[in-house]
Amino acid sequence: MEDPNAIEGPDELHSQDEVRFTVIGKTRKQRALFLAFTVRDHHIRILHGRDAKRKEAKLYEEKISTT
């Protein structure tokens, strides 16, 4: 992962059939993104991607300001 400040964790709400994860990070152009993904057969499968919501972007900014 290129963003060392990315926030990654399990997506327990949507992990009924398989283990899913979420990540919030910034692109090289400083765009905050939210991704939901899973790992299948040793490959990462993106399930959902979008611009981070204001609350998610704020959480990300708070994390990088403390590191």
Descriptive account of the structure:
The chain is an alpha+beta fold. The chain has one helix at residues 54-66; strands spanning 7-10, 20-26, 32-40, 43-51. A four-stranded antiparallel sheet has the order 1-2-3-4. The radius of gyration is 12 Å and the shape is globular. It starts with 6 loop residues before the first strand and ends with a helix.
Q: Which range does the strand content fall in?
A: 35-45%
Which outline best applies? globular
Element string (H = helix, E = strand): EEEEH
Class inferred from helices and paired strands: alpha+beta
Cα(first) to Cα(last) distance is: 17 Å
The pLDDT mean sits at 90
Q: What percent of residues adopt helix (DSSP H or I)?
A: 10-25%
| Main sheet makeup | 4 strands, antiparallel
Strand arrangement in the largest pleated sheet:
1-2-3-4
Runs in which pLDDT lies below 50 for 5 or more consecutive residues are none
Determine Rg (CA atoms, Å): 12 Å
Number of strands: 4
Number of helices: 1
List the helices and strands and how they pair.
Layout lengths: L6 E4 L9 E7 L5 E9 L2 E9 L2 H13 L1
Antiparallel strand pairs: 1-2, 2-3, 3-4
Quick structural overview:
Helix content is 19%, strand content 43%.
Descriptors:
globular; 4-stranded antiparallel sheet; 67 residues; alpha+beta; 4 strands; single chain; 43% strand; 1 helix
